[in-house]
Amino acid sequence: MPASPIIHRTVDDLRSAVSDWRRDGLRIGMVPTMGALHSGHLELVRAARERADRIIVSIFVNPTQFAPTEDFGSYPRTETSDVAKLAELGVEAVFAPNANEMYPTGYSTTVSLAGPAIGLETDFRPHFFSGVATVVSKLLIAAFPDVAMFGEKDYQQLMVVRQMARDLRLPTEIVGLPTIREADGLALSSRNAYLSAEERQAATTISRVMRHAADAIRADGDAEAALAEGRATLTAAGFRVDYLVLRNAETLAEIVDIANEPRRMLAAAWLGKTRLIDNIAV
């Protein structure tokens, strides 16, 4: 039976473990999560193992990235099963603080953002990236890992975290891994658990629409026509579309020269009460 990871509840305890590893000259990897671990998270852990000697997985449902109307209270919390999955992969440490450890009484410091954080998600969730950047910076400062792993499914988040790490000169390499998908194309997400059976079947429309639009853009370069068709298809399938756009893959700025810029298509849409996001290279 694999050994269970050591669970650290405080920054001080985590730093003590990291200090011991550092003295032994070991390389440290971190996988920040909100728990409810699925195959995508576990792929991040496997990729971290290829790059580090000791792995820390954080499990913390971060209140500062949820608006009052969002699903903080109902977000799945499955620490026992999460830790069991991580034990199977030989993870050495889990950092699972409570909210008071991360945001003690009197806490008043947050990370302010621009650049890739402007637009897209923040047009609909203006609080989101400040909460993400604040908690990720605290996690990275708590452990100062050599490498931290993030999934490309949350592509704008990945760009924001990379920018933040560069700007704050954090000594951690930020690595993004390709989106892990179900066999039918749906991007893995903890929130997929909210979908009814009928919604789950319809949810694959997002990835199909994006692939079709990407093929059309590559064929004739008419991005707006392809994206407009995609939005219409999603709406007809019962989605409420927040955005379906084409952006520069490195900056998330609007495309100026479609033939010569790296391109990323990003989408966010509601299906019932569940908000799904996805992205693909074009």
From TrEMBL:
<comment type="subunit">
    <text>Homodimer.</text>
</comment>
<dbReference type="GO" id="GO:0005829">
    <property type="term" value="C:cytosol"/>
</dbReference>
<feature type="active site" description="Proton donor">
    <location>
        <position position="41"/>
    </location>
</feature>
<feature type="binding site">
    <location>
        <begin position="188"/>
        <end position="191"/>
    </location>
    <ligand>
        <name>ATP</name>
    </ligand>
</feature>
<dbReference type="GO" id="GO:0005524">
    <property type="term" value="F:ATP binding"/>
</dbReference>
<comment type="similarity">
    <text>Belongs to the pantothenate synthetase family.</text>
</comment>
<comment type="pathway">
    <text>Cofactor biosynthesis; (R)-pantothenate biosynthesis; (R)-pantothenate from (R)-pantoate and beta-alanine: step 1/1.</text>
</comment>
<feature type="binding site">
    <location>
        <begin position="151"/>
        <end position="154"/>
    </location>
    <ligand>
        <name>ATP</name>
    </ligand>
</feature>
<dbReference type="Pfam" id="PF02569">
    <property type="entry name" value="Pantoate_ligase"/>
</dbReference>
<feature type="binding site">
    <location>
        <position position="65"/>
    </location>
    <ligand>
        <name>(R)-pantoate</name>
    </ligand>
</feature>
<feature type="binding site">
    <location>
        <position position="65"/>
    </location>
    <ligand>
        <name>beta-alanine</name>
    </ligand>
</feature>
<dbReference type="InterPro" id="IPR003721">
    <property type="entry name" value="Pantoate_ligase"/>
</dbReference>
<keyword id="KW-0963">Cytoplasm</keyword>
<keyword id="KW-0436">Ligase</keyword>
<keyword id="KW-0067">ATP-binding</keyword>
<keyword id="KW-0547">Nucleotide-binding</keyword>
<dbReference type="InterPro" id="IPR042176">
    <property type="entry name" value="Pantoate_ligase_C"/>
</dbReference>
<dbReference type="InterPro" id="IPR014729">
    <property type="entry name" value="Rossmann-like_a/b/a_fold"/>
</dbReference>
<comment type="function">
    <text>Catalyzes the condensation of pantoate with beta-alanine in an ATP-dependent reaction via a pantoyl-adenylate intermediate.</text>
</comment>
<keyword id="KW-0566">Pantothenate biosynthesis</keyword>
<protein>
    <recommendedName>
        <fullName>Pantothenate synthetase</fullName>
        <ecNumber>6.3.2.1</ecNumber>
    </recommendedName>
</protein>
<feature type="binding site">
    <location>
        <position position="157"/>
    </location>
    <ligand>
        <name>(R)-pantoate</name>
    </ligand>
</feature>
<dbReference type="InterPro" id="IPR004821">
    <property type="entry name" value="Cyt_trans-like"/>
</dbReference>
<feature type="binding site">
    <location>
        <begin position="34"/>
        <end position="41"/>
    </location>
    <ligand>
        <name>ATP</name>
    </ligand>
</feature>
<dbReference type="GO" id="GO:0015940">
    <property type="term" value="P:pantothenate biosynthetic process"/>
</dbReference>
<feature type="binding site">
    <location>
        <position position="180"/>
    </location>
    <ligand>
        <name>ATP</name>
    </ligand>
</feature>
<dbReference type="GO" id="GO:0004592">
    <property type="term" value="F:pantoate-beta-alanine ligase activity"/>
</dbReference>
